[in-house]
């Protein structure tokens, strides 16, 4: 049996662009992805704290240090520029592995720059 647990969360970033004519996905500053351990093309969930919308898509790395969080294609219909979103990635593991596992949290400040990277410690 495997369990699905939170792998990483990029907490409270602002959408910087919404491009409905692009073929889909979300573009995220590569520095944020590296800090969270999220890989190119990895599936992510995007929770919009403004509209309540929750969607699933895949990641495309953006320019390092840019702070960009761009909703692309159909995802752009679920968030507007300036909306606050949380980006979550999940991982499958055995119950034994889950006993000691701790997800990564990336906290940001102005312009979606990394403020801190922490492990859940509950």
TrEMBL record:
**Which cofactors are named for this entry?**
pyruvate
Source organism, top-level taxon = Bacteria
Q: Which UniProt keywords apply?
A: Autocatalytic cleavage, Cytoplasm, Decarboxylase, Lyase, Pantothenate biosynthesis, Pyruvate, Schiff base, Zymogen
Cofactor binding, per record: Binds 1 pyruvoyl group covalently per subunit.
One of the record's GO cellular component terms: cytosol
The chemistry this enzyme catalyses reads: L-aspartate + H(+) = beta-alanine + CO2
Question: Where found, per UniProt?
Answer: Cytoplasm
Residues that bind substrate? 57, 73-75
Give the transmembrane region(s): none
Tell me which InterPro entries the record gives.
Answer: Asp_de-COase-like_dom_sf, Asp_decarbox
Q: In which pathway does it act?
A: Cofactor biosynthesis; (R)-pantothenate biosynthesis; beta-alanine from L-aspartate: step 1/1
Q: Name one GO molecular function term.
A: aspartate 1-decarboxylase activity
Q: What is its main location?
A: cytoplasm
Under the heading Pfam families, the entry gives: Asp_decarbox
HAMAP family attached here?
A: PanD
PANTHER family linked? ASPARTATE 1-DECARBOXYLASE
Q: What is known about its subunit structure?
A: Heterooctamer of four alpha and four beta subunits.
Q: What is this protein called?
A: Aspartate 1-decarboxylase
């Amino acid at each position: 049996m495997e369990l699905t647990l939170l792998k990483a969360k990029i907490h409270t970033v602002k959408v910087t662009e919404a491009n409905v004519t692009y073929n889909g996905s979300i573009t995220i500053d590569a520095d944020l992805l590296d800090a969270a351990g999220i890989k190119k093309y990895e599936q992510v969930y995007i929770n919009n704290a403004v509209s309540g919308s929750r969607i699933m898509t895949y990641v495309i790395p953006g320019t390092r240090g840019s702070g960009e969080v761009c909703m692309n294609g159909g995802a752009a219909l679920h968030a507007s520029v300036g909306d606050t979103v949380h980006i979550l990635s999940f991982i499958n593991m055995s119950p034994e592995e889950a006993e000691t596992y701790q997800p990564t949290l990336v906290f940001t400040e102005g312009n979606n720059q990394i403020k801190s990277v922490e492990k859940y410690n509950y």
